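Standup, Tuesday
Yesterday: got the pipeline producing structure tokens again.
Today: sanity-check two examples.
Blockers: none.

Example 1:
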Amino acid sequence: MAWVDYALYLVFGGVAFILLAFAANLVITAKTGKSSLLLSRIYYIAAIMTVLVNLVRSVAVYNWGIWLANLLVLACVGVAFRRNERDAKSTEEQGRGR
């Protein structure tokens, strides 16, 4: 097996982990009414790592156009993670009465 095959399995595992963390967060949100910040951080970080592995694998298997598409996905996930962290911080500050 070539290393790109192992990278593909890592990508599949990353996607499965992201979906499981997202589903667990959905259940927590349904029960408590509040999203788990820890699980949100975990699936954003897992998404970033999965996209990075896929970026390296895609460049080896395909061409540089796929590299640009993966960079766009990475930028979108990064922006979503940043917005999630900012919203969590502002919610936390409102809870303290600032």
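Example 2:
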Amino acid sequence: MTDGEAARGSVTNGRREGILFLLIAGLTLIGFGVSLIVNVREIAYRIFDFYAPFMNAGRATRETFRYVGIGGVLVGVLWVAASFSIM
């Protein structure tokens, strides 16, 4: 094996790891977003109740983090799609 072949192999392996990272991060974000939307174990309410004393919540309600979950799912889907398009 020449130095050039070894270098190309390491780039390919690094690229695969990057794709795998995008895929795992996207799936994790989708899972967390769905758990916020469905409000599993009232996680969205507990997150809001935790952060409300530290900030001026304004007109935000306890349902706000459920809408944040929709954004999380959308970003996660884009990350998963990006990982498949790179393959």
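Quick observation on example 2: The two ends are 25 Å apart (CA to CA). The CA atoms of residues 35 and 65 lie 10 Å apart.
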